[in-house]
Design brief:
Elements lengths: L42 H7 L8 H9 L26 H14 L1 H14 L5 H16 L7 H12 L6 H6 L16 H24 L13 H15 L8 H15 L2 H16 L8 H6 L4 H18 L2 H4 L3 E14 L36 E4 L11 E2 L10 E2 L2 E2 L7 E3 L6 E2 L8 H11 L13 E5 L13 H4 L1 E13 L8
Antiparallel strand pairs: 1-2, 1-3, 1-9, 4-5, 6-9, 7-9, 8-9
Helix pairs in contact: 5-10
Length: about 500
């Protein structure tokens, strides 16, 4: 009997003899089945089958969409003469993949802290919870030196929150080792997906904040004519504050500055006081209505005029020198829609200017009139226009000279030598001043109420009946049965350039 150097075989063991080789393969069993169906896959099923799951190849997908098709093995697009954290490692797909996975797995505590701060600041856990934090901040404002003890309080809170736990000596004596620390969540787990969701939303919030503040940047870097004025006011206020600095109560100042965000985000402030302040500012309080109805309903002509003047002031600031020295005029364009009963749909509207080709972001709302009519009863759309109706886009006020083309590229010819101002796009007429005075007077007398009916709503729409008559800023409920329409006037400036005139 053969022996092994590394295995101790008992002396009474009997070695089994191998049997003669036999054919262990069983004959293949034939199974009859029908051919697969060749019917096309439904679109919904195809879309569901291609739906991306964040637990499968997420890192590869993000990297494929973030990096160009060809990238060198070692690249340093950020040039710096000194060693910085942003240039510590070269741009590399493997390094990015590893760091991304590590970051998603370990960023959870940051978003936990963010959620707790948001709960306190937005009063999500009740007034008692937020009130304790306000009282603590007031205590620190009254005794500012107590801020030096805040790190000690944080450490003590963390250690006391895990008490009571067995001490190391007790764990050793009882032969029960302490529980290991929780490891970072694995890729694809629920916690990992929660971190990824938080990263996604934080990126969107940061981008929104950047887009909100970026229009102010030209005024600070000498890209605007108002930079000199802002600099002058800054220096003047700086010199004005120097002699009064000793007289400013810092404790009260920091208390007011710290408590103001809590006051601003209070539910009562957001639901009642701020709407009342806005309604009082725009002067559009409707009799018998509350503040929220006023804000979501019809704005006053005073506020609409202020909004248009502000829009024109911004457009004037963007004009080039060639525009200032040239003759400028306005061209008009009318948008026509009809209301049809049925389930409401928002696919026909946009929350931004449909014709704003430069993307200025002048929000005119969705234009659905949802605040004027009950939701879920119908929708406004150009596709609801009848064959004998006006065209969706018309150049004349009568509504019969249609303009061809899509919304993003309308066919709009100008006289020789005239061109559109390149720095601005189409702007809606929020006043509705194009409505004739005869129609306004007849509508006012027919209404019999003190509420204004002339002009346009906050989105620039003027509502009419089934035959495009009786213009109003608020559609009548009786029009639902017979039909109703609406129009909106768009304007854009043009300038004369002699270089564009064709020579004979």
């Amino acid at each position: 009997m053969s022996t092994f150097d590394y295995v101790e075989i008992p002396p009474d063991a009997i070695r089994l003899q191998s049997s003669p080789a036999s054919n262990p393969v069983r004959p293949l069993t034939r199974i009859s089945t029908s051919l697969p169906s060749c019917s096309p896959i439904p679109a919904a099923a195809a879309a569901a089958s291609t739906t991306f799951s964040p637990t499968k190849s997420l890192s590869a997908l993000l990297l494929n969409t973030s990096f160009p098709t060809s990238i060198p093995t070692s690249a340093s697009p950020r040039k710096s003469s000194t060693a910085l954290l942003s240039t510590r490692d070269p741009l590399s797909i493997p390094i990015t993949t590893v760091n991304f996975r590590r970051f998603v797995a370990r960023v959870g505590p940051v978003f936990w802290l963010q959620d707790r701060v948001e709960e306190v600041l937005m009063w999500r856990c009740g007034w008692k919870y937020t009130g304790v934090w306000i009282a603590s901040y007031a205590f620190l404002c009254y005794f500012p030196r107590m801020v030096l003890l805040v790190p000690h309080a944080i450490l003590a809170t963390i250690m006391l929150s895990t008490y009571p736990t067995p001490s190391p000596s007790e764990s050793i004596s009882t032969k029960n080792p302490p529980a290991p620390l929780a490891s970072p969540p694995s890729e694809g787990s629920i916690d990992w997906q929660a971190n990824l969701q938080a990263i996604q939303n934080l990126m969107g919030a940061f981008s929104d904040a950047y887009d909100l503040l970026s229009p102010l940047t030209p005024h600070l870097i000498h890209r605007s004519t108002h930079t000199s004025l802002i600099l002058t006011l800054t220096l003047f206020s700086f010199l004005l504050l120097l002699p009064v600095l000793p007289l400013i109560p810092l404790r009260l100042l920091f208390f007011v500055l710290g408590v103001f965000p809590f006051i601003w985000t209070h539910p009562v402030m957001q639901a009642r006081i701020i709407p009342l302040l806005k309604a009082a500012l725009i002067g559009g309080i409707v009799k018998g209505g509350n503040a929220s109805t006023t804000l979501t309903g019809v704005t006053s002509s005073k506020y609409a005029s202020l909004k248009m003047n502000l829009r024109r002031w911004i457009d004037d600031d963007r004009l080039d020198d060639k525009h200032w020295g040239a003759e400028m005029r306005e061209v008009e364009l009318w948008e026509n829609e009809r209301w049809a009963p049925g389930p409401s749909s928002s696919s026909s509207f946009s929350t931004r200017d449909d014709l704003d080709v430069v993307g200025s972001g002048f929000d005119v709302g969705d234009g659905s009139g949802g605040t004027l009519l009950s939701t879920g009863t119908g929708s406004w759309s150009k596709t609801h226009l009848r064959p004998a109706d006006r065209a969706p886009w018309t150049r004349a006020r009568d509504g019969w000279s249609g303009v061809g083309g899509e919304v993003s590229n309308l066919t709009f010819s100008l006289a020789p030598g005239w061109a559109f101002v390149e720095t601005e796009g189409w702007r809606p007429d929020a006043l509705g001043s194009w409505v004739s005075a005869v129609s306004v007077s007849s509508s006012s007398s027919a209404s019999g109420s003190g509420d204004p009916v002339s002009g346009a709503d906050d989105n620039g729409w003027v509502y009419t009946d089934d035959v495009w008559a009786d213009p109003r800023r608020i559609p009548l409920e009786a029009w639902k049965a017979s039909g109703m329409t609406r129009r909106r006037r768009w304007v854009r400036r043009v300038y004369f350039d002699p270089a564009l005139v064709e020579s004979p």
